[in-house]
């Protein structure tokens, strides 16, 4: 049984489920895709690789072929670390992307390699129990609990 998972659908109908925590409250890092085959049959398959950080109570949203997973909890009142608060799965290439150069700008709300804001920008995605939505290439994150402790 999985709790506190997230799911997001790509524009072509691929559904990606990012695992939450198991029955023993252990955060999980795996993701599964529900794809539709040409003949109409649907099938679950594990997503390639392993997410950079296990988490639950996170949010996930697609922008084009990239799934952006933000925030989340680790258990014991701890949040996902700043350096891994955003994980990005490029479903076209089948790899989890290096997000060390990707931050969230507090001024524009965009993921950007050149966004100003440093630690304050990354802190915006370090939260749990929040909502995320994509409009075009913009990701909006709203609500949730923020800070180093839940």
From TrEMBL:
Superkingdom, taxonomy of origin: Eukaryota
GO MF annotations in UniProt: hydrolase activity
Residue ranges of the TM segments: none
Gene3D superfamilies the UniProt entry points to: Kelch-type beta propeller
Keywords: Hydrolase
Pfam families to which the protein is assigned, alphabetical: Kelch_2 (PF07646)
Xref: PANTHER family: SERINE/THREONINE-PROTEIN PHOSPHATASE BSL3, SERINE_THREONINE-PROTEIN PHOSPHATASE BSL3
Protein name: Kelch-type beta propeller
């Amino acid at each position: 049984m999985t709790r506190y998972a997230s799911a997001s659908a790509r524009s072509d109908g691929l559904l990606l489920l990012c695992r939450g925590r198991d029955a023993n409250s252990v955060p999980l890092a795996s993701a599964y895709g529900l794809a539709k085959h040409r003949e109409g049959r649907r099938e679950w398959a594990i997503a390639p690789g392993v997410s950079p950080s296990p988490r639950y109570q996170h949010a996930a949203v697609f922008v084009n072929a990239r799934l952006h997973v933000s925030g989340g909890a680790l258990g014991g009142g701890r949040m996902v670390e700043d350096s891994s608060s955003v994980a990005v799965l490029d479903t076209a290439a089948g790899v989890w992307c290096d997000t060390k150069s990707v931050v969230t700008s507090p001024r524009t709300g965009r993921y950007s390699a050149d966004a100003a804001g440093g630690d304050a920008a990354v802190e915006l995605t370090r939260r749990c129990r929040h909502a995320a939505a994509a409009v075009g290439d913009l990701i909006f994150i709203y609500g949730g609990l923020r800070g180093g402790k839940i």
